[in-house]
Amino acid sequence: MGGTFDPIHHGHLVAASEAAANLGLDEVVFVPTGRPGFKQHANVTPAEHRYLMTVIATASNPRFTVSRVDVDRPGLTYTVDTLRDLHAQRPEADLFFITGADAIQQILTWKDSDRLWDMAHFVAVTRPGHRLTVDGLPQGGVTTLEVPALAISSTDCRRRAGAGLPVWYLVPDGVVQYIAKHGLYRGLHDE
Ligand code: ATP
Ligand code: MG
């Protein structure tokens, strides 16, 4: 499951857990982006903070792991590179790429999108506020999955933290504390 995870929240965790249960996955690898190509405009938190929050949020689940492939690769992050690196590390694994309804819509605009279909199965999960359609995507290329609706976004969590409003119960407790400890999103007016 790729994402900016700025910060990781319970919507991400429920989506990952549901995909794992429904598709019988052995492991969910969370892959925080390095520099996301499509978010160059925004004020993205340094990758090391986003990576550590993802580690904190997933630590208690034995099936959840976090990969540094995108954080450690110089330059912009492209999913084609993510999948190539994950395949190199786990040559035996059957890869599934989990995305939300909003992200799957962007897939055709991703770098080398025609090659992605051979590199992984794509799983699109429902997300409040976004219609889940796979129009224009290869037939059979994308599995759609309805997951319990959690109307949580990282954008809203950043706004709340920036405005001094609570993010308790939207993100895991350890992430609330990490945000406070490092003063993340303080005085944020980016969106
Ligand atoms: P931002 O508001 O900064 O874009 P976000 O909440 O969309 O953050 P991302 O890191 O962009 O989080 O998302 C990573 C992946 O998780 C994407 O595929 C996205 O569609 C999916 N996702 C995010 N939030 C949810 C949610 N509440 N339910 C289901 N999927 C989600
Ligand atoms: Mg997003």
What do these coordinates show?
The protein is globular, with a radius of gyration of 16 Å. It is 39% helix and 15% strand. It has 191 residues and is of the alpha/beta class. The mean pLDDT is 93. The strands form 3 sheets. The protein has a 3-stranded parallel β-sheet. It has a 3-stranded parallel β-sheet with strand order 6-7-8. Strand 1 (2-3), helix 1 and strand 2 form a beta-alpha-beta unit. It starts with a strand and ends in a 9-residue tail after the last helix. It is built from 8 helices and 8 strands, in the order E-H-E-E-H-E-H-E-H-E-H-H-E-E-H-H. Helix 2 (47-58) packs antiparallel against helix 8 (173-182) and helix 4 (79-89) runs parallel beside helix 6. Bound molecules: adenosine-5'-triphosphate and magnesium ion. GO terms for molecular function: ATP binding; nicotinate-nucleotide adenylyltransferase activity. It is an enzyme of class 2 (transferase). It comes from Antribacter soli. Pfam families: CTP_transf_like.
Low-pLDDT stretches are none
Through-space gap between termini: 24 Å
Strands of the largest sheet, in order across it? 1-2-4
Structural class: alpha/beta
Count of individual beta strands: 8
Helix content: 25-40%
CA gyration radius, whole angstroms: 16 Å
Could you say which overall geometry the principal axes of the C-alpha atoms support?
A: globular
Average pLDDT number: 93
Which molecules are bound besides the chains?
adenosine-5'-triphosphate, magnesium ion
Helix-strand string? EHEEHEHEHEHHEEHH
What characterizes the major β-sheet?
Answer: 3 strands, parallel
How many helices?
8
Report the portion of residues in β strands.
Answer: 5-15%
